[in-house]
Structures are given as structure tokens and as C-alpha cells.
Amino acid sequence: MNFIYPILFASFIGFVLRIASRVCMKSLVDIVLTAYITFCGSVILTGFALSEIGKIDDRRFWAFSVFVPAFIFYVQFTKLFGRDQRERFTFFELIGSRTQLVWNWFGNLPLWLKWSFGLLLGAFVITEITNLFLIFYTVPNEWDSMTGHLNRLMYYMRHGSMAHFGGTNWNIDTYPRSVCTIQIYNYLMSGRIENWFKVIHHTAYIIIGFGVFGIAERLTKNFTASVFAALVMWLLPDVMMQSISTETDIVLGSYLACLVYFLFTYREKHWRRYLYLAGLTFGIALGHKITFVFSLPPLFLIIIYTVFGEDLRAKFVDKFGDSYQHFWSRIFGRLTHLVVGLTVGIVLFTLPTGYLRNIQLFGHPIGPPTALKHQSVERAGTLKNLIKQGSRNVVRYSIDMVNLDGLRNVEQFETVNQLIRKPIEKVEKKLHLRLEEETDFTINPFSYKVRFEFFNANPHWGIFGFAIVLPLVVLVLIGFIRRGIAFYVLAVAFCLHFAALSFTAPYDAWKGRYMISTAVYAVPLVTLLFHEGNKWRLQGRSFVLLKFYTAIVVLVASVSAILVVYLNERCLPIAALGRPSAFDTDRIDLQTWARPDITPAYHKFDELVPQDATVALATINDDFEYPLWGKNLTRTLIVINPFEKGVQPIPKEAQYLFFAKKVIKPQPGDIRLGTDTTMTNMITKGEDYYLRKLK
């Protein structure tokens, strides 16, 4: 009967696409984004419900339950929230017409644009095919997932619930749980294939490109400009790196792209269903990760523009003779729909995700004081110091953006990269900004010469960022480019999000992944290069210098994108950097690549402990626990050193004890597993691990 579950999984995808086709306007992007939100929302609600009854690991319940919230969504948007105009069409009809549109579009491009788009599309196809193979044929091995993200999925499934239980790593219990439901659903319906834990992240990668395309199309009505914006988003190094990992920031970015798209679509269509879609998406995003609060100021600005902007302009600028009563009635009506949508979204998707439980247990929605002091605004201390250090962070992240990410994975290009940054360093030293010396509001201190692991695993935007996107943001803000208030709103939104990243948390060299959401606001501005109001636009016949400049950027960005994937030390598709291909690497070697000192210990553990054993764990917060579940994820692990609770008694059912020397003192008969304690230059050194046979 195992074959029935993949069939039901495919049926559910078809079901949400059918729902989206009945709810949306005649637009492929509209259908894809709405189906994505319907899929995620339905699975999240189902997961919350199954967790409450202790059945989150029972795929029999999952198989049919997900259809219920999806059907309710359909009823709401056809009978209640979206009773405005609907167009009649089929999904497959749209696929056919859009395929023909793309074919004709590319054929009619000028030669130099064919060359440019050919490079971008070629880079995208090469990297996308490679990444799909990496997703389905290599095991997850991202650092935070080995300690928290994936590790907690296994604990939740063993317990049958996502309730707080006291994990070793603090984020197991305190991080929001909505994305866990999607990963568990994908894993169970695939037949318990662990690589499917990564599928939602790669889906989010595709969706974020569609979202940016949709936003760009709402801004310009220019297909060429919109395709360019989507390709830029897909080929940003930080976006590409997360497309094959189990880090959660790319999923948040996909929700944000959908939300901004729904708001801009509402401005165009004035169909209230898009206010409700925006409200539900807002709740899903806030329930996904607390860093979504960085987007609250920019989203407030975008909402004012997209939902109320036309009425405010008509009343106070153009002075159309609208009656006072009619004006406020329309404003109040739109506000009512928006507030109801936001309320429903927050109640359904945000409140059950774990923030309230954190307040109960720790007195704060994020988690315990240790976590707050480590990576939140509390670390800055006084308001005066926050302003001073936050301002430094603005400069630090700005400098981090000026990097040839992707190219710098090659030593020779890193030398060129450092030469490019030398003038910036000289200016900063003359201004005495002390970006490297001041470290009290940093996690990993800022440096002009970052470790290879940092810029390889967590790059920023690469050449597209500092050569095209950021200059356009500046030109819009200073008024040099004036092509409508929408572009100015997005430029300001970018600044607000960038400032929020800088002032609300300490500087961290790993923060390139946070810039995925920042890019959602900024990348649509690249459409200005094709705007019909510009004499210097790329589709014009003049301005050869601008075309040459853009062509060079496109070439470098395309090569960079390929190098981002093919020289990704975490998951190499080919042998490189002195390492074998990820396809040819042993499971434990690949999962412990970032901490090679513990690799021998984990190999010995795997040799000595049966795949179905029950193991008590006395490890510390930063230890890799996920590899200990075994190659088929069939071992049972029991935490006995929960975060900040101290060592608990060893449970009777445990057959083995895996422990760190600093947690439990070894005794005669314990087996030292062989951590290489002599290794140096480690980001974080591993513990000295031991194994004790209990039965």
C-alpha cells in the first residue's frame, strides 16, 4: 500500500492548483503563488491539528486530512472572501499559451539581449538541474540542521507531537514550528525519504523567482523586464545557496514575495480576495520565523501605497471632488477587509506556532535569556550603544555586499576581490569607524578577510547586487530616476529592512541568508533598465556604454552562479577544493564536513550501535545530533541534558549512552569514540565523545 501515498501527494498538489485556478485571475504566476500559499497553509494547519492529537508521525492521517483545510480555503474564497469577478480558464490552457508567449518573446529579442538572456537562462538551467540532483541524491548536512532544524523533526515524529520536551539545542523547542509540518508531510508522503526534507526549500527558491516576476510585471507591464528581474533573483548567490539546504530563510523570502505580489495585485485589480490572501500569507510568514518582524516597517509602507494610496492621492493631491463620506467609507471598507485577513492569518498560522508557549516558559516569544543575549537587540545594552553599533552594522553589511560572491570561491578571483575592496578599507580606516576593532555587538567579528567557509556557505548578492541593484536603489532615492512612486516605495522598503537587520541583531558573518528577504524589495528595481520612460533603457537603440556594462555584469553573474553551485564546499557536485564529490562522499563524512574533528567519533558510533537502538544523549547545545539517528533514521534518541536544565537520569529503555566528556565523567569500560582533539583552526571545536553500553 505504500504506493498510494505518493499518489495522494500528487493528487493534493493537483487539488491546490485546481483551487488556485478557480480563485485567481488569468495569470500563471497568480495561480502558482496562490497554489503555493494554499499548499503551505493547508499542511501547516493539518500539522498543528495532528500534533494536538499525537498523530504527527502517522501518514494515514496526513494523507487525507490536508484536503480539508484546502477545501475550506476554496469555499471561503469563492463564497465569502472573493465574490468579485472571476475569469474562466484552465491551468493547462495557461501553460500552453505562456509557453508559446516565451518562445515568441525570445525570438523577437534584439541580438544583444538574446545573448544576455541566453547567458542568464543557461546559467539558471545548468545550476537548477545540478541542484535537483544534489537535492535528491545527497543527504542534508547544513550546520544548524545537524543541531536543530532537522534534528527536531525526528524528535517530533518520535513523540508524535511538536510539544515542548526539552531538547539539547535551544532552538528545538523555541523556534516556530510551521515549516516543520511541511517537512514532515513531504517526508512521510515520499515514503520516508529524508532528502524530501529539502523539497520545501527548493520549492521556495522557485516561488521567490515567480514572486519577483509578478511584482515586476505589476510595476512595468514589461515581460522582458519581469523575466530579467526573476533571473536576477534566481541567480543571487545567497538565494542559490539556500535552494539546496534546509535553512529556513529562503522559505520566509518566498512568503514575503507572495505577500508583496498580492498587495501590488490588489492595487491593480481592487479585488478584495487579494487582501485576504495577503492577510493569510502575513500570518504564515510571521508564524514561520520571528525575523519576519524586520519586514513590518517596509510592509506598512507598501500597504499604505497599494491599499490606500490611490484614494489618498485622489483626496489630498488630485482633489477629485469625492465626497467626504464616500472617501472614508471606501477607506474603512478596505481597512476592514485587510484587518480581517490579517486577524484570520495570525489566529490560524501565528498563534499556534510556538510564540505563546515561549512566553509561558521563558517570558519572551523568542526564547530563553541566553538566546536573547546571543542574537537579539538586548546584546547592545543601552540605546546609545545600539545606535552607535547598529550604525556600524549598516556600514559592515554594506561593505559585505561589495564582493564578487561566487567568483571568489576561486583563489585567483578572491585576490581580485580583495583588490577591489582595498579602497573601501582605506577610506574606513581614515574615518576611524573601527569596524573590525569594535566587537560588542557582533557574533562573528567583522573582517575584510573573511574565512572561506563563511563567504562560501553564506554569500551575499554578488556582482548583481553592487553593480546593478544597489546603484538603482540609490538613484531612485536621490531622485535621479523618477519613474513612479512605486519604485520609490520599494527603494525605501529596502532601506527599512536593511536598517532593521543592522539595528535589531548583532553583526554576523553568516547573515547573507537574511538578505534574501531584503532582495525581494530591491530586485524589482532592475526593471528600470527596461522602463519605456527612459531614454537610456536597454531596449533602446542608443547608450551602447550602458549595454556593454550590463552585458559584462550578466557574464560575470552567470559564471559566478555556476561557481556558487559547483564550488559549494558543503555539497560539491564534482570533486574540487581537495574534496570528493558529494555524490561519492560517505554519509557521515558529508554530514560532519564542517566539523572534521568529530568525524572519526561518529564513524565509530555508527559501527558500534545498531540502527534500531535506543540511545540516551548527554551532549551540549552545539553538538551535531542529527547524524546519530542513523542512515535510515531508525534509531531512537533520548535527550538527558536538555538546554540549561542539567543532566537528567538515564531512562530505563536506553540501551546505549552517548556523551560528551564535559557533561558526564567517563568511567572504566566506557569507549572513547575518537574525536580528534588536536585539530586547530576550527570554527567550533567538537567535544570528546564516549559511548557506554547499558544493556
UniProtKB/TrEMBL annotation:
Domain Glycosyltransferase RgtA/B/C/D-like: 204-309
Protein keywords: Glycosyltransferase, Membrane, Transferase, Transmembrane, Transmembrane helix
Superkingdom to which the source organism belongs: Bacteria
An example Gene Ontology molecular-function term: glycosyltransferase activity
Pfam families on file: PMT_2 (PF13231)
Transmembrane parts of this sequence: 31-49, 61-77, 118-139, 196-216, 223-244, 250-267, 274-307, 327-351, 461-481, 487-507, 514-531, 543-567
EC code(s) of this entry: 2.4.-.-
Top enzyme category: transferase
InterPro entries named among the record's database cross-references: RgtA/B/C-like
Protein name (record): Glycosyltransferase family 39 protein
Naturally occurring in which organism (per UniProt): Flectobacillus longus
